Amino acid sequence: MARNTQVAADHNAPAITQILAEYVANHPSKGWSDAVDHEAHRTFMNWLGCAVGASNHESAHAALAAVKLLAPGAQASVLGRRDKVDMCSAALINGITSHTFDFDDTHLKTIIHPAGPVASALLAMAEHTGATGRELIDALVIGIDVSCRVGNAMYPDHYDRGWHITGSTGTLGAAAGCARLLKLNTQQTAMALGIAASQPVGMREQFGTMTKPLHPGAAARAGLMAALLAQQGFTASPKALEAPRGMMQTVSTKNDWREITDELGQRFEISFNTYKPFACGIVIHPSIDACSQLRAKGITPDQVAKIELRVHSLVLELTGKKEPADGLQAKFSVYHGCAAGLTFGQAGEDEFADEIVTRDDMVALRRKVLAVVDDSIDEASADVTATLTDGRVVHVFVKHAIGSLENPMSDAQLEGKFHTMCDRVLGAAQTQTLIEACWAVGKAPNVSAIMSAAHN
Q: Looking at 60-64, 250-254, 325-329, which range is the least confident one?
């Protein structure tokens, strides 16, 4: 007997799987503006820096140890290290490290971190297959477009249900990018998307643990494998995305198909990518920016009696941890973000180190932060008022934090961020060589220059 369903299925959805497959397989190389191509290089560089920067994190050691139990073949490199493993395992580990510090790119409309799944899969495959840099960048633009367009169609319902949208849509983006890199035809690409559609990855319950960065890594691995399966003739439903019991209608009650089809091949979602100046959840950034501005005004932590913070409800929903016990938890604490901004004037990975998070003065300052929900304030903004011990009151309102589309990081700032992440792993000179290779990758005959500079 058929069971009742709460939401009526859409039996007239457009042929999304086929539409995307045709786009991925047939869109011309560099079929976009120079501005889009430049953004792709910025995205690639930012992703690579995050992955190298976290290459010695305990999660990277654990993941590599687990992978080596499988005795993988040496097909592709683990960034920041001399280890080589199979393509899928390299995609997994590099995806993990790229998201470990929560310092990677963000597509603000959906809160997707698009490069982690897509670039991690592509670089591993490109290294093994000898793909050109141009082919890599083409696949990056197109793979990110697929993941973010699907995200646009399902957000916010899909995210509100508890899915980590980076992983769930990233599997599709990685499959699309790898299908493009392998030069699969339209039918094979549709199968790759279909195979990936049965493997959405990640739940928000895992935020604040090592399993959160597993999500983009697992999505990269699943998408790469989906493309390899399709290349060998493995099949899937040709309606795997849009069917009433396909991926999208299963994991979300909201499916705006126009978000996928409108201006496909003309508007590229990578154009709306942003890069984090602070190593934590994006919704904390306006508050950190505001508290950094307080510090720039000469206010020091010992002068502060209290900090009143007015933010959108999503900020406290995602980052309301008042007493984080370690660095991972602190990345989901707007209270720690405010304390870091005022104390250091910045909030890079060092400011989320366990020893900083548990320091007595940081704990005391966090407890002076009083956060209040005010949904008249946009989630991209923050209203901060500091009351000082001498009675003075100082107010800062941040409408758009640094790193947002309205206040983007410059190329020079991105390079500076890259150095802060990679110098300790590679040394400053080699880091600069890697930066130059990233900017030039779209014209490179292969990715060997990247790979030779990306390990110590």
A: 325-329
Q: Which pLDDT band, with edges at 50, 70 and 90, does 2 fall under?
A: very low
3-class SS string, 264-319: CCCCCHHHHEECCCCCCCHHHHHHHHHHHHHHHCCCCHHHEEEEEEEECHHHHHHH
Tokens, residue 256:
């705006």
pLDDT digits (tens, 9 = 90+) for 142-161: 999 999 999 999 999 999 99
Domains of the chain: 16-275+438-453 (1.10.4100.10), 282-398 (3.30.1330.120)
Mean pLDDT of 121-131: 98
Q: CB count, 10 Å around CB of 427?
A: 12
pLDDT band at 281 (very low <50, low <70, confident <90, very high): confident
- Look at residue 356 in the predicted model and tell me its pLDDT: 98
**Adjacent-strand bridge partners of 277:** none
φ/ψ of 355, rounded to 5, equals: -70, -25
- Kindly tell me if the per-residue pLDDT of 3 is higher than 60: no
Share of the chain above pLDDT 90, in %: 95
DSSP per-residue codes, 124-175: HHHHHHT--HHHHHHHHHHHHHHHHHHHHHHTTHHHHTTB-HHHHHHHHHHH
Q: Are 163 and 251 in contact (CB under 8 A)?
A: yes
| Strand ordering across the sheet containing 304-311 | 369-373, 304-311, 382-388, 393-398
Which uninterrupted H or E stretch holds 364?
helix 360-366
**Rounded Cα gap, residues 191 and 237, in angstroms:** 7
Q: Per 3-state DSSP, what percentage of the chain is helix, strand, and coil (rounded to 5)?
A: 55, 10, 35
What's the pLDDT at 6? 55
CA distance 104 to 280: 9
Query: Residue 386 gets which letter from DSSP?
Result: E
Pairwise CA distance, residues 405 & 97, whole Å:
25
Give the residue among 226, 231, 217 at the shortest CA–CA distance from 91.
Answer: 217
R_g over Cα of the chain: 22
Nearest to 173 by CA among 204, 194, 145: 145
Length of the chain: 456
The average confidence (pLDDT) of the chain is 96
Cβ proximity of 93 and 210 under 8 Å: no
